[in-house]
Amino acid sequence: MRLKSIFSLLKECNDCKTVDERVSALKERDHPVLRLILRYAFDPSIVFLLPEGAPPYKSCDFLDQEGRLYVEARKLYLFVEGGNPNLTKLKREILFIQLIESIDKNDAELLINIKDKKLPFKSITKAVVTKAFPDLIPSEEKNI
Fold it and tell me: Which long-range contacts (CB under 8 A, 24 or more apart) does 132-135 make?
């Protein structure tokens, strides 16, 4: 069975009519990589060390790349504060471009948006994600 792209999973959840349906849809599609992507999107303590906006890249036109982000997600730590302090700014940006050029074009757009702390789905909010996965994103009150 082919894996759906993370973008497709989130789009399906976004298309649900009510908050409870979206929460239920997220729970049904639960996967460690989906949780990781949502955490990177909504956790304010995760800061990307990349310039804002889309870098110059060539989108991947290969077929069957929808499952590629499941493998490549393990590299996301390289692009955030505290991930790998030995990387130069240039090397970090080159690695990010290589990553988004290797995955499905919709997942690439998703990562570019997440890097800028914007999810391209209006109905998937921090509140919906917190309701689906209560321990995923630390609340601001605990950090005080």
Answer: 132/22, 132/23, 132/26, 132/27, 133/26, 133/27, 133/30, 133/35, 133/38
